[in-house]
Structures are given as C-alpha cells and as structure tokens.
Amino acid sequence: MKLVDQYFLNQKEPYQSIMLYVRGIIFNALPEVEERYSYKIPFYNCHGKPMIYLNVLKGKNYVDVAFVQGVLLEKEFPVLKNDNKRKQVRSIQLRALEDLDHDNFVKLLHVASKILKDSKKAWFL
Length: 125
Prior knowledge:
The chain is about 30% helix and about 20% strand. It is built from 3 helices and 5 strands; from the N terminus they run ααβββββα. The protein has a single domain, classed as Aspartate Aminotransferase, domain 1 (Alpha-Beta Complex). Strand 1 and strand 2 (about 40-45) form a beta hairpin. The chain has a 5-stranded antiparallel sheet. By secondary structure, it is an alpha+beta fold. It comes from Aestuariibaculum sediminum.
C-alpha cells in the first residue's frame, strides 16, 4: 500500500471521507496530476510543481485544502482563506462534504493549474 493511501485510511471521519472526495475531484478534473506523499501529507503536483496539499491541522476541526499559489487566486475565488497567516498559501476549510461547491472547485483547479504552468516555480515568496 502506498504511503498516501495509508495516510487517508488513518484519518478519522469525517476527514477521511472529505479527503477522499476531494482527491477524486482532483484526479477527475486534472488527469495529468501526480499524487505524492511529502512532509507526511498528500501533495498534488501539476507541471512538475506542487499545486495543492491536503491536511488536518492540529487543533482544527476541518480538512485544509491548501493551494500553494493561493495568494494569486484569492481575488477570483474568495472561498480561499488565509487562516494561518501564511504568505503564499490559501486554503478552503472543509468541515463536511457539503461545504465544497463542486463546480467552483473544478474551475479553481483549472485556473490554478494554468497559473502554475506559467510560473517558473511554485514557491515564490
């Protein structure tokens, strides 16, 4: 079993279901995406660069769907928040599956992929 699969199986509900649902959307929307296990969490790379990661932050009661270049996306997608005073990363906090607007999330994935493709590197701040 891959480490990333083990990570998902080790999550408590509802986090496990939320993460698996988001993972499915990512794979369906971006067939070219590569799933990796880095820093003990799942990362999704596009164009050879990290684009999204999934995490349950200690002391928080949600799944953090974090976009590496989120600062470039937050005006067009106000669902992205800077909850932890991060310089570049912005994220969607999901407490339940119903919290995710599927169509808007797919659009966000496509825009994020395009921006990342045109970027020289993922981490710029």
